[in-house]
Amino acid sequence: MTNSYEQTYPQSHQMMDMCKRHKNQYVLVQLMDGYQLDGIILDVDDEYVHLAIPADEQYDFVEDDDDHRNPYGYPGYGYGYGYGYPGGRFRRLVLPLVGLAALSLIPW
């Protein structure tokens, strides 16, 4: 039985299957508006794909929320303590599956 979300957005089911096949792989994602970004697929659920994107990339729609994670103004814990922290190599980004137009693998 399919839910109303899958009936409204049938292409999201195909994109979800593709994202699941490429979980933990480095991919190039193209959004419906033509914007492209690269990252590693961390997780996929019925509505969203979770990516780890390089922290050195400057994406306009990714908010820098370091102040929320470190309210006291300290510089952070250095390298290697996961995504999103100052000095970290990756940021976590959650995108809706209906916003994805294409997905392709990028060789390391």
Topology:
Layout: H1 4-8, H2 10-21, E1 26-31, E2 36-44, E3 48-54, H3 66-69, E4 90-96, E5 100-105
Antiparallel strand pairs: 1-2, 1-5, 2-3, 3-4
Please give a structural write-up:
InterPro entries: LSM_dom_sf. This protein is of the alpha+beta class and 108 residues long. It has a domain at 10-57 and 83-105: SH3 type barrels. Helices cover 19% and strands 32% of the residues. The protein is built from three helices and five strands, in the order ααβββαββ. It has helices at 4-8, 10-21, 66-69, and strands at residues 26-31, 36-44, 48-54, 90-96, 100-105. A hairpin with a 4-residue loop joins strand 1 (26-31) and strand 2 (36-44).
Précis, in short:
The protein has a domain of 71 residues: SH3 type barrels (Roll), CATH 2.30.30.100.
